[in-house]
Design a protein that fits this description.
16 helices, 9 strands
């Protein structure tokens, strides 16, 4: 049964990707074509390292690395095999959780993967080590558009890992027509079938986009208006969610939800009725990058690991597993890359030209946002309905639950 489900999932996914690729058929003729055989890993480079026998502490987002599941490449085990360096790998749920852990000094991490605005904050507070790019020669593979970004203009502290966008996910059987605005999340027609981000930065960002504000405004009047906008949505919101969105949308229990584009493909694998829309008001674009915190105990091995992650074979494995955009210019145009022509992962520039990065907010604005968010959630829609709903859907059977819980798709095996 599991094998049959897996085959159906792959067929649906590849059919969807084929349909997406049609509009790009002619444009693709002008794009470069690279082949993985031309970018083999120099194994001796990693075997002959002076850090063999040491331990490397890596702190990353959950479900954010190719880990050997479903025939994918286990990136960390491959690194350990080549280098003789043991990896202690742990996860965080949000930039803020990661920041709090670093700030408390409760743990010594060697490699972390914060998002853009958090990198800016960590660098400003002196919590990041400068990188020795002589030890990261694969930085040459990073596309120029992801170098010298606002949070690290001199490329001193970070190497881009993944790129993503926020978009509007909707169930085509529950929504009358494809939405073109974030205002769909306020539509009373879908009251009780709408999900919203359960983190203030993303949630306020959507309200700010509707209001035509800059996502990084520090004007208290703007934040007051955005708060009022979110407050007016409460009567139609079913739940404020993060990872819970997977089971809810995959099971068809909600009609509309904002989320990260890469995760949409995971959900669509499990529910082909799900579609995606890019609202006309714009959205947040984000990059997650690899950095070395000042608590690092093994800097040389950390730089070796960062370099390894940008090897085309490794970056390809991660891009296929995670389904987020790759900043690696070789992987982006590898013939072996199944998502190279996906208009979901790589939307046309006409769509993303007005997208905005989050910047680090000053302390006063952060406090204001946090206070508004706390006020919004007081006596508001809690996650109780989410958990009740999930319990009901669990009754569909353990087999389905196990299938629906799979977070990342594993595509055709492209390595030995």
């Amino acid at each position: 049964m599991k094998k049959t489900m897996k085959i159906i999932s792959v067929v649906l996914c590849m059919s969807f990707l084929f349909a997406l690729s049609v509009p790009f058929a002619f444009a693709a003729e002008d794009e470069p074509h690279y082949y993985l055989k031309d970018y083999k890993i120099d194994e001796n480079y990693y075997k002959n390292n002076p850090y063999r026998g040491t331990t490397l502490n890596v702190y990353n987002w959950g479900e954010y690395i190719s880990d050997g599941s479903e025939d994918s490449l286990d990136v960390n085990k491959y690194f350990e095999k080549l280098t003789g360096i043991k990896i202690n790998y742990t996860n965080f749920d949000s930039n803020e959780d990661m920041y709090a852990k670093l700030k408390s000094g409760g743990a010594n991490y060697d490699v972390i993967t914060p998002s853009d605005y958090m990198i800016e904050r960590l660098a400003d507070e002196g919590l990041l080590e400068k990188l020795n790019m002589d030890n990261i020669p694969n930085f040459k593979y990073i596309s120029d558009e992801y170098k010298g970004l606002y949070f690290d203009k001199k490329d001193e502290y970070s190497v881009c890992y993944n790129v993503g966008y926020v978009a509007l996910i909707y169930n085509s059987k529950l929504v009358d027509k494809k939405p073109d605005s974030w205002e769909a999340l306020w539509d009373e027609k879908y009251a009780g079938n709408i999900l919203m981000f359960n983190n203030p930065r993303d949630a306020f960002g959507i309200a700010q986009l509707i209001l035509g504000q800059d996502l990084n405004t520090t004007d208290p009047k703007d934040w007051a208006l955005a708060y009022d906008k979110l407050l007016s949505e409460k009567n139609v919101v079913r739940s404020y969610v993060m990872d819970e969105i997977f089971n809810i949308m995959e099971s068809g229990a909600a009609a509309l939800a904002p989320y990260y584009v890469g995760d949409f493909l995971t959900m669509k694998d499990n529910n082909p009725d799900l579609e995606i829309a890019y609202p006309k008001e714009g959205a947040n674009i984000f990059v997650d990058s690899m950095c070395i915190p000042t608590t690092c105990q093994n800097k040389g091995a950390a730089e070796l690991y960062i370099n390894f992650m940008e090897e085309p074979e490794i970056a390809l494995a991660n891009a296929e597993y995670i389904c987020y955009g790759t900043p690696n210019k070789i992987v982006r145009y590898l013939d072996e890359y199944s998502l190279r022509d996906s208009s979901v992962i790589y939307p046309d520039e006409s769509i993303t030209e007005n997208y905005q990065y989050f910047h680090n907010l000053d302390s006063e604005t952060q406090t204001l946002m946090s206070n508004y968010w706390s006020d919004l959630k007081v006596d508001g829609t809690s996650n109780v309905s989410t958990y009740v709903g999930l319990a009901l859907f669990a009754a569909l059977g353990i087999a389905y639950a196990a299938f629906a819980f799979v977070r990342k798709k594993r595509r055709e095996k492209y390595y030995d």
